[in-house]
Amino acid sequence: MSFSGEVKEELVKHTGTARHCLLAELAAIMTACGSVSVAEDGDMTLFLQTENELVVRKCFTILKKAFNIDTDILVVVPEKHENGRIYKPFLDQQREVRSVLMALRMLDEAGQLRKMEEGVNPMLVRNSCCKRAFLRDSFLCIGSMSDPRKSYHLEYVCSCEKHAEDLQSLLKTFDIEAKMVRRKKYFVVYLKEGSEIVDLLNVMEAHVSLMNLENLRIYKEMRNSVNRRVNCEAANITKTVTAASKQTEDIIYIQKHYGFNNLQDNLRQMAEVRLQYPEATLQELGHFLDPPVGKSGVNHRLRKLSELADRIRS
Length: 314
Hints:
This protein is of the alpha+beta class. The protein has 2 domains: about 5-205, Endonuclease I-creI, CATH 3.10.28; about 230-314, no CATH class. It is about 55% helix and about 15% strand. The chain has 11 helices and 8 strands. The chain has helices spanning about 5-10, 20-35, 55-65, 95-105, 130-140, 160-170, 195-205, 205-255, 265-275, 280-290, 295-314; strands at about 35-40, 45-50, 80, 85-90, 145, 155-160, 180-185, 185-190. α9 packs across α11 (about 295-314). The chain is rod-shaped and about 115 Å long. It starts with a helix and ends with a helix.
């Protein structure tokens, strides 16, 4: 199972205990993948996309807890095709339908139906717990997440702009700055920082997934740190070997074309030690000198020898 699937499996087990949280969850489901059909006689039917079994299960659980409604997919009522999606009916008893729609503030006292494009009613998500519930079930319906072993990316894919703006606004109340972009006919609210995704998992109360993600983040950061250190050490070794090779080459050239006897005592001793220990570091070379010299002193003497070799060559 993908990491995104594991998150959803965890989220579907979380159902609000308070009725206002249950309504926020049901509002998230209806906004993301629900639809309302109104017949000529005014009778209404609630529809739901059923590709995701977890969403259907969660929806029916909420209806039972919040309204004491037992229902199932209605076989006798034709399914509805809308915007390339297939919606299946799950509630057509008028008293129950109106009770649900009024509780979700999608139907007013005059019987006017609120359009899905208008987004969720702010009264349903005024509490922090309700905002968490709405974000949780929205992710269950239209959310996805990439494998964190490869990259950090979490997104909500919304069919209308107002829905995306609502989600972006709710995320901001938890100090999560989500970006929004249009992708063909959809509006995508997304996060690309590992820390932000961790924060959202915490908000949605997906604590097991959060710990799994944190473990992966720690592993990746340790691996990247080790790789950076190894690359840095390899670069330093290459630099040191190259420098030592150039120093040795210059000293041999001085020996052949100038002679060590013509060198000052400190430079002659430096030249002899470098030839004797071609792989030693500057600090190690300093210990071999008599008297010992520090790293900067060794570097100064070797630079003098290189300058002398360049003058002889020219």
